[in-house]
Structure formats: structure tokens, C-alpha cells
Design a protein that fits this description.
The chain folds into three domains: 98 residues, no CATH class; 238 residues, Rossmann fold (3-Layer(aba) Sandwich); 70 residues, no CATH class. With 465 residues, the chain is α+β, with helices and mostly antiparallel strands. A hairpin with a 7-residue loop joins strand 19 and strand 20. It is built from 13 helices and 20 strands.
């Protein structure tokens, strides 16, 4: 290969026109007056120097110099390139390859794969930074609601204890799932592992929010989320994995502040150039019938050509519940009850210092609870507590099961976990029903696309003339 470039494709007299005016033409051996032939392929054309060819390299004066020009204006010859705004041109020795852009070839490949999978009513999914697989499970449940069986082909998570627990208790994973227990930044640039990963239809990303959340930015004194030393840079690795797995659709969940980060801006424009349409929303758990008032930002990217409208997804009507409906029967003399005096003393000190930190306590009559975090087991002053039904000065932490119930998460997914690990897994996961409904909505859109003809994609960035 001597050179590669991207050129725009024009239309002239109702047919595509390929005009190549470059010194690279001569470097490839196509001198003015030389004859060449055109070999039409499935995704492009190959030009070869051929003394018996039916076409001739033209010439054009550029100041005192003569430049070789290739001009092809034919509906039949350029049929593989029809409808496309730009093409990739690779110059070799005595040959020039003109084909669809790699991004367009990948777009068409994933749509064809989707059509093949839909014929069997199943989809392959993948997860990045999937924790204990709560998002994965909700995704599969929603796709099942749309009539599609889902199989997790690839799952990536840095924590080995969560991976092992998910392999035993999470039915979103099975023996055929490739479990990648390694840091995302290692996975993304590990050529041996990456080339063994299969492409998937739907990819979910649970990128850490430590750098983007208000608490994370304050704790780490970050000017921007990307400054976080452990997770601020992970969007680059995530994009590399997206490129390898080439999903038809992508679902990303994070804190609302992530939407305003540089990482989100980079992701949006990169997905656009990879031929995806990107839509976003912020959903509150209590609007979807769950008890936890957890607000999260969701980004859904679908391959161009798929009709999907995230804004049309609306919550249904749900019965009113109270926290008492999910509370476990804890004995009044159970040692979990405590006055938590040290936290009450801290609250008093915070008040006197003019700080806004306050304790949260619930008696069970409430219809919602504030966000339950991954550090709940640490008994921090701002985390929610339940009050004793007879002695209101006594408090206790929500149990792991109660935490799961507040989020609407199936309890078997946290079976056997201790308080610390259970709350960590749940606190960094999702409120279940909103994700399930997004997945159902997405599944219906994908299913309805099964018989749609694949149309050419459009280029949104400038190309060489």
C-alpha cells in the first residue's frame, strides 16, 4: 500500500462519479494515457493497469505540472458505491482499490447479522464493566418482554468476586459466556484477547461514575471527571471495545452529571462517526414504580437505519407502595438496632459548623427512599436508616435484600452475599424497571427492523474533494 485516503463521491448526469486527481495516482503507476480496467466487486471496484483495458487515465495541468486524473461516471460500473457520499481509496502498485468506508461496511455487517439473528428470535449481548450483572439481567428481561431470547456472549468486569458470584447466581450468564475478569484498559489493548471476542448485537456499559458524581468529584478534588486517576480515562478503552464488538445497539447508564463530561461528548461524536444515532434521557426510579428515588442518565445508540425513539418511552401506572412493604421482619431486640450516637453527634457538629449534612431515617410509611449507595455498609451519616418501630431512637441499616427490593432487583442476584459486598454490588448497579423498559422498547425496535432493506449510510464529517 502506497497511500490511503477518503474521497467524496459526486453525482453527474444521474450516475455516481468517481474523480481522483492526485499525485498518488501516478505513484500507483497510473500515468496519463495509460490504459486500465475496472473490476466490480461486492463493496467496491478495483482499478488495474491493463494494456487492453477499456479506460484511459486522463491528464490535467496544475500550473506547470501535469497531474494524472481518473474520471469514472457510470451507474453500472460504480453500482457498489451508489448512494454513498464518500469512499475509501487505497493506492497499491499498478492497482487502486475503491471501496465503501470501513465504518459503512461495519454498519452493514451488523445490520445483516441482526437480520440473521432475528430470524431465530435471539440476540447476542455483551457487557462492559458489568459488576454483578444487574444491568445485564434487566437488559435480558426487557428483550424477553419484546419476544427475543438474549445470550451474553462477552462480559467484562475487573472484580473477580463479583464475576464469580454472577457466574453462579445470575442467569444472564452461562457456560458459553466469555468472562473477561480484567481491567477495561487492559482488555481494550490486549490484542490476543480482543481478537478472540465475538461481535454482539446489544452492548451494555456500566462505566464507573466515581469521577463524574458530585461526591466523587468533591472527594478527589477533581476539576473535570477525566482527572480521576483510576476511572477518568476509561471512555477511550470503552470506545476501543465498542469498535471490536461492533454492536447493533448500545446502552450506557451513569449519573446525570456524566452527560456533561468530556467523556460523554467524545462518545457521542465517535458513535456518530461509527454510524450510530444517539439518544439520551434521565429517568427517576420512583416514576417507574420502584421505591428508590435514584436518578440516572441513559444513552442509547442504535445503528443508523433502525427506527428507534427513546422519547416515546413513558412510565406506566403502578400501585403505590411503602417501605413497609419491602421491610424484613427484624426482631425488636436484634443486635442490628443501634442508637448510632456517633452519627447523631456528627450531625450536631455539622449543624453547628453550618454544613448541610443530615441523617436520613425512615419508619416504613414513606413511599420512596433516597439513593442507596455502594458504601451503605459503612454506616455513613448521610445514608438512609430504618427506625425501630417501638424505640425511634434506635436505627438500623437496610438489609441487602431490602436494598434489592427498593431497586426492584430480583433477590436471587444477591443471594449469599455479605452486607459489604451486597451493598457494593447493588449500590453501583441500576434501578431495575427503567432499564427493563428501555430494553423492551429497544427490542421491539430491533425486531421490527428484521425485514427492512439495508440502505446506504451517510457521512457526517468532511472528506477530501
Amino acid at each position: 500500500m502506497k497511500m490511503a485516503t477518503v474521497l467524496s463521491v459526486r453525482e453527474k448526469r444521474g450516475a455516481p462519479q468517481l474523480w481522483i486527481e492526485s499525485l498518488a495516482v501516478s505513484r500507483a503507476g497510473f500515468e496519463p494515457g495509460a490504459r486500465f480496467s475496472v473490476d466490480v466487486r461486492l463493496t467496491g471496484v478495483v482499478l488495474r493497469i491493463d494494456p487492453d483495458g477499456d479506460r484511459t487515465v486522463s491528464r490535467k495541468l496544475r500550473g506547470p505540472s501535469v497531474v494524472a486524473v481518473i474520471d469514472i461516471n457510470s451507474r453500472l460500473t460504480l453500482a457498489p458505491l451508489a448512494g454513498h457520499d464518500a469512499v475509501r481509496v487505497v493506492y497499491g502498485q499498478h492497482c487502486i482499490f475503491v471501496s465503501l468506508l470501513a465504518s459503512e461496511v461495519r454498519r452493514q455487517r451488523r445490520l445483516k447479522r441482526l437480520q440473521a439473528h432475528l430470524e431465530a428470535a435471539f440476540l447476542d449481548t455483551g457487557g462492559v464493566a458489568c459488576g454483578g450483572g444487574i444491568l445485564s439481567h434487566a437488559l435480558h428481561a426487557g428483550l424477553a418482554d419484546a419476544g427475543l431470547r438474549a445470550h451474553t456472549r462477552v462480559a467484562n468486569e475487573i472484580r473477580g468476586d463479583l464475576v464469580e458470584h454472577a457466574m453462579v447466581h445470575n442467569d444472564a450468564f452461562d457456560e458459553a459466556t466469555i468472562m473477561v475478569n480484567m481491567p477495561l484498559q487492559e482488555l481494550a489493548f490486549d490484542e490476543q484477547v480482543m481478537r478472540r471476542l465475538p461481535e454482539v448485537d446489544v452492548l451494555e456499559l456500566g462505566l464507573p461514575c466515581s469521577g463524574a458524581s458530585s461526591a466523587g468529584r468533591a472527594k478527589n478534588k477533581l476539576a473535570i471527571p477525566e482527572e480521576h486517576p483510576l476511572v477518568g480515562h476509561l471512555i477511550a478503552s470503552a470506545i476501543a471495545v465498542i469498535a471490536r464488538l461492533n454492536p447493533v445497539a448500545i446502552l450506557l447508564e451513569n449519573v446525570p452529571l456524566y452527560a456533561n463530561s468530556a467523556s460523554a461528548a467524545i462518545l457521542r461524536t465517535t458513535l456518530r462517526d461509527m454510524r450510530y444515532d444517539v439518544q439520551e434521557c434521565v429517568l427517576l426510579g420512583t416514576d417507574w414504580g420502584e421505591l428508590e428515588a435514584r436518578q440516572r442518565w441513559y444513552l442509547v445508540a442504535t445503528t443508523k437505519g433502525i427506527a428507534f425513539d427513546l422519547a416515546s418511552l413513558q412510565p406506566g401506572r403502578y400501585s403505590v407502595r411503602t417501605l413497609a412493604d419491602i421491610m424484613e421482619p427484624i426482631a425488636s431486640d436484634d443486635p442490628c438496632w443501634s442508637p448510632m450516637q456517633y452519627l447523631k453527634d456528627k450531625e450536631l457538629r455539622d449543624r453547628n459548623a453550618g454544613k448541610g449534612f443530615r441523617m436520613q431515617s425512615y419508619d416504613g410509611s414513606e413511599t420512596s427512599i433516597n439513593t442507596l449507595t455502594k458504601g451503605l455498609a459503612k454506616r455513613r451519616s448521610t445514608d438512609p436508616f430504618f427506625r425501630h418501630p417501638e424505640k425511634p431512637d434506635l436505627l438500623r441499616l437496610p438489609s441487602v435484600r431490602e436494598h434489592a427490593r427498593c431497586k426492584g432487583i430480583p433477590e436471587h442476584l444477591v443471594q449469599g452475599l455479605c452486607q459489604s459486598t451486597g451493598h457494593e454490588l447493588l449500590g453501583q448497579s441500576v434501578v431495575y424497571r427503567p432499564v427493563r423498559e428501555i430494553a423492551r422498547h429497544l427490542g421491539e425496535a430491533l425486531a421490527s427492523h428484521g425485514s427492512v432493506e439495508i440502505a446506504p449510510g451517510r457521512v457526517t464529517y468532511p472528506c477530501a474533494a
